[in-house]
Input
Amino acid sequence: MWFLAISLPLLPVIIVTVTRYWDELGALYQHLLRVTPKLSWQSPVCVRSTHSFVFTNCTHGQAESVLETFHLYAQTHPSLSLGPQRGELLDAVVRRVAPSWTLELGTHCGYASVRILRLLPPTGRLVTVENDVTTAEAGEEVILVAGFKHSQFQLMTCPSKDAIPGLRAHVGQGLLQLVLMDHEVGQYLADLLALEQEGLMAPDCVLLFNNTQLPAARSLLQHVDSKPERYTVRRELHGLLELQRHLLDTPAPQGRSLSE
Output
């Protein structure tokens, strides 16, 4: 009882603090799930649980039902999906860009893949990369359950650093117009540099990076800040950062600094 008497006055402070940093705490939790799977819920178990719930409760062949079932699952379970708020930002980008080729690094259980595929133009294609075999299998099945066909997407099961050099075989002479990175945050900068080196991105490619409020994203943000002639920050929502790429000889519009 004495513990409760001492702690009760602190409750408002605790509640305000947790509320203020809710997004950061959620992003940190997701990051820990990815980099330390054996220490948190056992990642394969979490993946199987998500997949089973979505597969059992959604209406097969209906992408919107699949997304709604993901949202329902996330109300009572840990989830790695972008969720509806960041998902709406992703939707807006896909509609605006109408990409012929999209790259997703971090398939997870297929949530973002489904969001992207349902809005692509008829000739649009998605290449999605997932390092974990169990997660890749679950994600692929969810994408198929949502009603999409292998002719619309290709899934590569390997680390992103191995996938990027092999992308040319998938996209041919095409260029990536949209890139979503939602895998290991500390790998973002290396993968961005690899995409640049391989010449895989269109001059006006749009890039989305999830969980950029985490410390592991600092090197990426510093790099972007140092290249204002190459990248413009369009917006950021709950850690989902949108960048616009530019030709080096084309003046970039003024964007906000990530260090502000």
User: Anything to note?
Assistant: The first helix runs from residue 2 to 7. Residues 89 and 237 are 8 Å apart (CA to CA). The chain has a mean pLDDT of 85.
